Amino acid sequence: MSSHDHELHLAFFPFMAHGHMIPTIDLAKLFASRGHKATLITTPNNADFFAKSIYKSQQLGHQISLISVKFPSAEVGLPEGFESLSLGSSPDLYQKFLKAIPLLEKPLDELLQKHRPHVLVADTLFSWATDLAAKYGIPRLIFHGTCNFCVCASLCLSMYKPYKKVSSDSEDFVLPNLPNEIKFSRNQIPSFIMQEGETEVSKVFRASVESIYRSYGTVFNSFYELEGAYTDYYRNVLGRKCWNIGPVSLTNMDPEEKAYRGEASTVDHGCLKWLDTKKPNSVVYVCFGSKQKFTNEQLKEIALGLQASGQQFIWVVKKDKKDEGNGTWLPEGFEKRNEGKGLVVRGWAPQLLILSHEAVGGFVTHCGWNSILEAVSAGVPMVTWPMVADQFFNQKLVTQVLMIGIEVGIQWVGDSAKKDAIKMAVTQITAGEEAEELRNRARALAETAKRAFAEGGSSFNDLNSLLEELASLTNDKSLFP
Ligand code: UDP
Fold it and tell me: Do 330 and 292 share a structural domain?
């Protein structure tokens, strides 16, 4: 029986941070667009953004809906309404937030009991979801917010612990047995991977690794042509099932859908009109994801570096006017001086629309996986500026494997970049000797991404295989009496 004859009901439960929720919503829309029923689960304070993000799909008649479960803020000492890590992530908030995660098991249990979906797609950080799904006899698929490469590299680090063989935090070591020779230093690896003791974060990481080996399989927001050697590694060396069904952002066809991701933004945002006045590939887009983590000194260096590069830019800063005081983070008169040449966007920018605008020729990114894949899909080369978590891994993929980016030169978690390094990288990506080469490679990859996602492409076919496999499972009457 093909999956098309058998309507599946899939429940999707993402971790509460923009970088996880945005692609999971796209994922749910993708399954719904193939004629299946998708139920997204989130908490009340995130519900509004989910509802707006699925509105267009619902208008098209797709079966996609939303259920809220209470977030246990009070139980873990978080302020009322703090239901997303994108709202801030001081170490204290982060620890408390992670403590809240296991408490979501009970409401999810009640929800599965009531709605009885055929499949549970739960975030990698919800390790307990595997046993919960098993209780109802349904498969649990893991959704990683990141790429095949990053998961393989992290598992390789956990298995072989090559970081134990070097004598200093800055000494390079090679990750053994990976398809490419990838070097890291201890400074670039999230400490929770190396920690032997029990912190809240290392516990969550270890449980999530362990659940990879016990869950039905993994769904990646990626495509085979991008990092197939690592997909093969995941399947053949680690022995785990996985499906690459991305880039899932391509599921958004309508400009309104492309504009509204995570937070409100519009198709007539001033920065898009500004871009309309610029020549192709003449503007650098600078954005560091959904959270703001810079000190005022670093913001000032970015401002000076952009100005010194002489290139046109759009710079997204997650601060509003009231944070500016007496120009503490923006050099005096910066915007006036750069009028017509550079635009500072405060708050949320319509990133998908910006990246696909022909005037944008380069992207300075913190290397969040969604941002990278969105740049790949738009054929935009990158300046990489990793800060935490998987971002150092993603940087290596961009600069050393795919060769569609250059590094600004961040050496360790917490490192900063000076004006001159920023100036050099920004100039190189737009006007340097390498720029054309990088752009050509990025453009070719964008074409491949679109082909992979379109009917008959590798991601389309991987999704078909997944749907057929899930449909055959649901035909097992012992699972679904
Ligand atoms: N994003 C956006 N506008 C912004 C900032 C971010 O649309 O001003 C979107 C971006 O397109 C991406 C997501 O938010 O889909 C950020 O995810 P990513 O994995 O790149 O970084 P994170 O925020 O998780 O660090």
Answer: yes
Atom index in ligand 1 nearest the CA of residue 290 equals: 23
DSSP one-letter code for 17: S
The per-residue pLDDT for 262 is: 77
* Dihedral in degrees, nearest 10, Cα atoms 216, 219, 223, 229: -40
**Which residues are known to be catalytic?**
20, 123
What pLDDT is recorded for position 77?
93
Higher-pLDDT residue of 323 and 245 is 245
Q: Is the pLDDT of residue 3 over 70?
A: no
Res. 124: pLDDT tops 90: yes
Mean pLDDT over 190-209 rounds to 78
* Residue 217 host element (H or E): strand 217-220
Tell me if 49 sits within 8 A of 25, measured CB to CB: no
Tell me the CA–centroid distance for residue 290 and ligand 1, in Å. Answer: 5
Q: Which of 294, 288, 429 is nearest to 366 (CA)?
A: 288
- CA 354 – ligand 1 centroid, Å: 12
pLDDT tier, 245 (very low <50, low <70, confident <90, very high otherwise): very high
How many whole angstroms from 459 Cα to the centroid of ligand 1? 22
Per-residue pLDDT band at 321 (split at 50, 70, 90): low
Average pLDDT over residues 315-341: 79
Closest to 382 in 3D by CA, of 364, 402, 360:
364
Q: Which domain holds residue 385?
A: 267-449
Q: Give yes or no for residue 390 having a pLDDT over 90.
A: no
**Other Cβ atoms closer than 10 A to 208:** 17
Distance (Å, whole) CA 17 – CA 45: 12
The mean predicted confidence, pLDDT, of the chain is 91
Answer yes or no: do 373 and 311 share one domain: yes
- 481 has a pLDDT exceeding 60: no
Compute the distance between CA of residue 431 and CA of residue 309 in angstroms, rounded to an integer. Answer: 10
Distance CA 295, CA 416 (A): 10
Closest-CA residue, ligand 1 atom 24, reads 19
Q: ipTM, 2 decimals?
A: 0.99
Give the C-alpha separation, 236 to 416, whole Å. 39
Q: What is the pLDDT of residue 413?
A: 86
Q: Can you give the pTM of this predicted structure?
A: 0.94
CATH of the domain at 66: 3.40.50.2000
- Structurally, the chain folds into a number of domains equal to 2
Residue 229 counted as domain residue: yes
**Pair 363, 215 in one domain:** no
Q: Which atom of ligand 1 is nearest to the CA of 20?
A: 24
List the end-to-end C-alpha distance of the chain, in Å, as a whole number: 18
d(CA 149, CA 154): 9
Q: Which residues line ligand 1 (CB under 6 A)?
A: 18-19, 22, 261-262, 287, 289-291, 316, 348-349, 351-352, 368-371, 374
21 Cα–ligand 1 center, Å: 10
Q: Is residue 230 part of a domain?
A: yes
